[in-house]
Amino acid sequence: MPRVKVPRKSTVVDMTAMCDVAFLLLTFFILATKQKPPEVLAVQTPSSISSKAAPDKSIMITMIADGRVFLSIGEDSVKAAVLRDLNATQGLNLSPTELARWRHQEFFGLPFNQVKSFLNMADPMPPSRMPGIPVKDSTNNELVGWMRSISNVFAGTDQSVLQQKLLVKGDNSVLYPLFKEVKRAFKANDIYKFRIVTNSENVPVGSELYNENIASSTQKK
User: Fold this and answer.
1) Alpha helices for the chain (secondary structure H)
2) Please, which residues have CB within 8 angstroms of residue 204's CB and are 6 or more apart in sequence?
3) How much is the pTM?
4) Residue-range domain boundaries for the chain
């Protein structure tokens, strides 16, 4: 019996719908993706071979090149509690409305006696124009007050939680006396452990740490 030959036909696939979906997805990701904003306070941190990532909701002291010191608190609930404690312990006499405005600040870099007037400014001062938290004079180190309020908020909890959240970020050109006053503020509140923010770099080939890493990876295999 002869084989029946099936006539061959060209296959045509309409790609219009798929192209529409592809462009819709591309448009969505372009519009929804958030670009990393430029740093408000530019800091050139030193390099190290540490690979530990800094926590997102941290308490960071930033020392910039011109010697000013700023503080930021990433967790909103902690920030609100610290500012309430500061208002009480430092006698700032801020109203609930002023405290709410203060909570919206990303960086804190003003002397206590300028906070109230700053919060009532029609055009808020950007962090780049703030004078910074006074720390250069050991007799007037207002970072001590900030750290006291932070310690009060974390009182009764495991202090290792605060130690993990507490970061110090300094520019390469910052002189040691400024860092010394920052440490003085920590020591005045019985805080002896903190983490320093650096730029990560590769472990030098042939160094002791490099050899330890090689040995460790070999043992795991």
Assistant:
1) 16-32, 76-89, 96-103, 112-119, 143-154, 159-165, 176-187, 208-220
2) 49, 210
3) 0.71
4) 47-200
Instruction: Output DSSP code: residue 139.
Output: G
Amino acid code (one letter) for 79: K
pLDDT, one tens digit per residue, over 9-63 is 666 666 677 777 777 877 877 777 655 444 556 666 655 555 566 667 889 999 9
The sign one gets for the Cα dihedral 206, 209, 215, 220 is negative
Structure tokens at 120: 């009532």
Residue 11 identity: T
Among 142, 12, 173, which residue's Cα sits nearest to residue 70? Answer: 142
C-alpha dist (Å) from residue 88 to 36, 71, 119, 135, 147? 36, 19, 17, 21, 14
Amino acid at 68: R
Spatial neighbors of 176 by CB under 8 A, at least 6 apart, are none
Q: To which residue do tokens 């448009």 refer?
A: 27
DSSP state of 128: G
3-state helix, strand, coil in the chain (%, to 5): 45, 10, 45
